[in-house]
Specification:
heterodimer; A: about 425 residues; alpha+beta; three-stranded antiparallel sheet; B: about 240 residues; five-stranded parallel sheet; two-stranded antiparallel ribbon; 10 helices
């Protein structure tokens, strides 16, 4: 039996392996960050406080939690926000993904590809690479700061729209920084060396939102299902000492996140993205490690979208004083919303009384959805590697980092 | 004498304060020049060395948290709480102290076996030398404090309310002119009146300012038409155990 706290992931977790001789008896990924019970914390709260509370579920994807909760509440009350507000929210979410993917790919995952212990070591040998990572992460934060009001726990997205508008100067400055990064990242991705043992673990099932619908889920690129039906079809179980549940879709683990999104693309894109998908082998090879490269690919795609959205916003000439808001009238109702957070599908659902106070809330996060799949992958990897050597922990850790679990967000789950 | 050794640790939290430290961008490498970082979980494996100064984010919600914190206190010269969860318990320290029902509702099979306690700030468990509030911490405020702390001196921080910073920015008063239930008058300054500057009332994440006149603000909220329950909930978001 061996227990190790996994470094370079967000939060605390460990892998427990039971080995007899050279044979794997059992493997378990335990989440050790205690539960914070957000679904209970919001009961009795006014709808305006909900986004503020739930964004604290996770610092890395705070914008996703804030925006999806705002959309779920708006859907409950039948609020139609203005187009400009929708575009700004989309821009904010791209900022978050750039921050998160930049941090994960460059600081947490890349050291594995170059045999380094941490990004600090990587910075000594490959300062330009680390600097590129900081630029992406920094730009993501700059977007979140300008559009959301802060890099972490954003303030501006509220029920009914956005409470403030970024200045034209800020938008232009972001665009000027995004444009040169597109090519720089695309070129860099082609140089990442292949990873050892990378073909061992292949994705079996994958799930993401279908396009930008926000209302349908796509399973294994073939099966389309509504969010609420999907919610009914997943089931969870938890065993101590792990503080989180493992989610199965009809008894099968499944993967969410960048690679799942890539594998679910309705048709192959054109231009730079198509070239990268081809060169990197992302769609061909379903190795879980491809999740890292899919993340890199998304950095390129999101940078392109950031410049496109900013062009649209600049044309719209939005007045900078005051926000973009519509009236909100609460009613007794239920609202459900889904979003693609950096790590994958994120679901929020709330029920309100007629004064707009929460009576029930359910939240399912990407890491919770991925945990069973992570254990499946770890099991396959451990079994294969044990035939060759005794110390398999470093390789299991690199696999975990490919999934990119965000442990603080995995610790609260849906009631079924 | 070598560089001071610093460690950054997470208890129960969203990790936002540690993330804000990585958000220092390339400045974080300068920080690595000034101090020997012995622990920063999100970014590197622990060196296993004991720090001289420990920065701790998150609230204490389990025996493991508590034991870890007590052991850490014994090893370090200075222990600094970072972020609202560490300073006041934060947004998770709300609702009933007894959470057995919550646990069994959310985790029907295993909740009864979870050994967790009501989220408590660090100061309920150990002596804290200094607290850096904020949900999350503000980078400028953090750097300001680090400058002092790394020289072994307690930082000088604003001893006035958010209102002062809001006035200095020339913002329109949300409380007075927009009937928005702003907690600026009772909240410690240091964030540059971040929320009111973006059209949102202050939620009080820096905690109560020392001379806070709570009664007067409650009276204003009553005059604005807020019910006693609404007032209670307003104070009970980030401020230390509300009213």
């Amino acid at each position: 039996m061996s227990e190790e706290l996994i470094a370079r992931i967000e939060g605390h977790a460990n892998i427990k392996i039971n080995v007899k001789g050279r044979k794997l008896e059992s493997i378990k990924l335990d989440v050790l960050t205690p539960p914070r019970l957000f679904e209970k914390l919001i009961v009795g709260r006014h709808f305006n406080d909900v986004p503020t509370i739930v964004s604290r579920i996770c610092s890395i994807c705070a914008a996703s939690h804030r925006v999806v909760s705002v959309i779920a509440i708006e859907s409950a009350f039948g609020v139609k926000v203005r187009e400009e507000a929708k575009l700004l929210r989309e821009l904010l979410l791209h900022g978050e993904s750039l921050q998160s993917h930049g941090l994960h790919l460059f600081m947490l995952a890349l050291p594995d590809y170059y045999g380094k212990n941490s990004f600090v070591e990587l910075a000594t040998d490959m300062p330009e690479t680390v600097s590129l990572g900081f630029k992406i992460k920094g730009l993501g934060n700059e977007i979140q700061q300008a559009v959301g009001g802060r890099a972490i726990h954003q303030i501006i997205p509220i029920v009914g729209g956005m409470s403030a508008v970024p200045s034209r100067e800020d938008l232009k400055a972001i665009k000027d920084k995004a444009e040169p990064l597109i090519e720089a990242v695309a070129e860099f991705l082609k140089q990442i060396p292949p990873m050892k043992s990378s073909s061992l673990v292949q994705v079996k099932n994958w799930v993401s939102l279908a396009g930008n619908s926000g209302s349908d889920v796509l399973i294994n690129a073939t099966e389309l299902t509504g969010i609420e039906e999907f919610w009914q079809r997943i089931n969870e179980s938890s065993l101590p000492p792990s503080y989180t549940k493992h989610t199965l879709l009809e008894n099968e683990p499944f993967m969410v996140g960048p690679l799942a999104r890539m594998l679910n693309l309705p048709s192959l894109p054109t231009g730079r993205t198509a070239d990268l998908i081809e060169r990197l082998g992302v769609a061909k090879d379903r190795s879980v490690y491809m999740n890292n490269l899919a993340r890199g690919l998304e950095i390129v795609i999101f940078l392109e979208e950031v410049t496109a959205i900013i062009n649209k916003l600049l044309e719209m000439n939005i007045p900078e004083d005051g926000g973009i808001l519509v009236d909100v009238i609460p009613q007794a109702s239920k609202g459900v919303a889904a979003i693609e957070a950096p790590r994958g599908l994120l679901l929020h659902s709330y029920t309100f009384d007629s004064n707009g106070y929460v009576t029930a809330g359910d939240i399912v996060t990407p890491t919770a959805l991925n945990l069973a799949e992570m254990e499946r992958g770890l099991g396959i990897m451990a079994e294969a590697l044990l035939k060759e050597k005794a110390d398999i922990i470093p390789e299991l850790e690199t696999l975990i980092r490919a999934y990119d679990p965000c442990i603080s967000c995995s610790v609260h789950v849906v009631n079924l | 004498m070598g560089k001071p050794k610093a460690g950054f640790y997470s208890l129960t939290s969203c990790s936002g304060d540690i993330l804000e430290i990585t958000n220092l961008g390339e400045d974080i490498l300068k920080l690595f020049d000034l101090v020997e970082v012995v622990h920063l979980n999100v970014a590197m494996p622990s060196t296993g060395k004991d720090p001289d100064i420990a920065f701790v984010e998150g609230a204490v919600t389990s025996m493991e948290d508590e034991e870890f914190l007590k052991a850490l206190r014994k090893k370090v010269k200075q222990l600094v709480g970072i972020g609202t969860c560490a300073c006041t318990g934060g947004v998770i320290a709300r609702g009933p102290e007894d959470r057995r029902n919550w646990l069994t509702d959310v985790y029907p099979e295993s909740g009864a076996g979870f050994d967790i306690t009501f989220p408590r700030p660090l100061k309920d468990i150990v002596t804290v030398d200094f607290s850096i509030p904020g949900c999350p911490i503000e980078k400028k405020y953090l750097l300001h404090c680090l400058g002092y702390l790394l020289k072994g001196v307690l930082p000088e921080v604003p001893a006035y309310s958010v209102c002062m910073e809001c006035k200095m920015k020339g913002n329109e008063c949300l409380l007075r002119y927009r009937s928005s239930a702003c907690l600026g008058p009772v909240t410690k300054a240091g964030c540059g009146a971040r929320q009111p500057s973006l059209g949102r009332p202050c939620d009080g994440c820096f905690g109560f300012y020392d001379d806070a006149n709570k009664e007067s603000l409650i009276e204003i909220f009553r005059e604005m038409g807020l019910s006693e329950d609404e007032i209670k909930k307003r104070f009970d978001l980030f401020l230390e155990r509300g009213l």
